[in-house]
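Ticket #4471: structure output looks truncated?

Reporter: J.K.
Steps to reproduce: submitted the chain below (217 residues) through the standard prediction queue, then opened the result file.
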Amino acid sequence: MAAAARVAWSQAGSKKRHSEPLTQPDDITRIGNHLFTGFQNGVGPQGQASTDGNRDSTIVEFTLSGVVVNQWDIRGKCDGLTANTSAGLVVATVNEDAHSSLYTIDPFTSRVVHYSYYRPLPHHGGTDAISFSRGLMLISASAPGTTGAAAPKPYYPAVYVVTLNQPKCRRAAGRPWSRSRSSRSPRRPPWPPRRRIARTPRPRSASAVGGVGERAE
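Returned output as attached by the reporter:
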């Protein structure tokens, strides 16, 4: 059960490892017969450390009967979690107020890829909920005006369309979403076809919405 899962971390400047039970479960999603839940562990909405120094959220994979299968620690407060079942990936957004980024998790290989924005988001906030519609990945623009002009502003986007260009360039591109454009098919699919399970993980870099720089965890 979830009570058996823990998060481990080291504070900055220290090699000592700390461990504690997972707390603050939030979003839940499903791939096949497995469930995935994000635990925020007291991390702040801009990625601030919890009161005991932890800066990581934890994504836990469960069977339908509640048995823990696997878990992944990701830096920041996980506030959005959704499965892209066509690609076999779990997608997580972190830090809903500012300093936001996103992760993809392949539960078949346990590979985690971190996409960080290389340009400030134009609504000057963070990101939160994730949805997939007509082949598009839609991510909500949360907490507008956290680092810029106070909301509301008519030019602040409410939703972004995010495209991750895989597998070679490892870049992500995005644009504000509008209802009139949503009916059009994208020029290229935002996700690759379902990949083979067997492959060798290796470090790399990438980007997302409005531009992002990525790193592999």
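Triage note (M.O.): checked the attachment and the full token line is present. Residues 21-195+203-216 form one domain.
Status: closed, working as intended.
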